[in-house]
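quick one before i forget lol
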Amino acid sequence: MSSVILDVLAADRVVCIVRANQVADPVALSAALADAGIRLVEFTFTIPGVLDLIEAAADAPGTIVGAGTVLTAAHARDAVAAGARFLVTPDVRPVVAAAAATTGVPLIMGALTPTELSRAADLGAAAVKVFPARIGGPSHVRDLLGPFPEARLIPTGGVIAANARAFLDAGALAVGAGTDVVPPDLVAQGDYATVGERAKAFVQALSA
């Protein structure tokens, strides 16, 4: 399954992170993103009732749903049971890595420094979320790839349409799109037409 997720990341160059107090319709949201060219959708454990959202979105056409802000082994197991096909941590979490390994679901582990990146790789991370990307910008990604040229990096946190292409040009495998594409208020209101337009603009910026 890891290869499937990596193939989609390499093709789409983006994963969308949904973080809101409420998601009006996870299926409609996922469909709007998929129609715009974003197939990987991550619902974070900071959202109330996130497991129900993952379960609903798991059957959305064209969508590969994952769980984010996975902090515990229970989070990992519950998310996979609900239908998550990839897991994402905000930092290096050995306990989550161990749980993910038993499920066979790929893990994207958060890291910022060379030491953290190396540790994430040792723990079996399929890719590394460089978080928060706004701290070092594209140059930080380029610097990390110097000693780790084979690293699959996904800058997240501060990535917007205006700078997303620069992260790819620096060597990132893909980027994480957050509130620039899925503002919490629009997600809660169910204004997925506007979300779809924002997603299209983001996707277009990746190939600009």
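fyi The mean pLDDT is 97.
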